[in-house]
Amino acid sequence: MDKESLNHGGTTRSELFSFIAAIFISVCFCVAFFISSFSKGGISTSSLDGHINPNVATVFSMMRLGGVGFGKASAIVSYREQWAAENGGRAFESCDDLRRVKGIGPKTAEQMCERLVFE
Questions:
Q1: Cβ-contact 38, 51 below 8 angstroms
Q2: For the segment 58-83, what is each residue's pLDDT rounded down to a tens digit?
Q3: Which of 8, 13, 37, 104 is most buried as measured by Cβ atoms within 10 A of its Cβ?
Q4: pLDDT band at residue 44, thresholds of 50, 70 and 90?
């Protein structure tokens, strides 16, 4: 056994250091990915006063609205992406446009409208 070996199954200090460095780098990438998932491409999903733009918001941002769970938020984002692919431009110009999304009725659209901004 050489001087650099530890008493843990022959693991050297350099191997242990490499392992710890790899774990640290992996955690950093995971944190960066998690943070970037809240804002795509540097586009703000909400304004300074806390209003959310449904034309750019992530599923998690949409879930911050009252009465909007994962299912409705996912439906809004999916509808927006499909609209952009087929028609280009913004899918939502007003709260009434949200009613085109399956599962969003007049009451839900009205409740969400208070916290939305259309830019």
A1: no
A2: 999 888 887 789 999 999 999 999 99
A3: 104
A4: very low
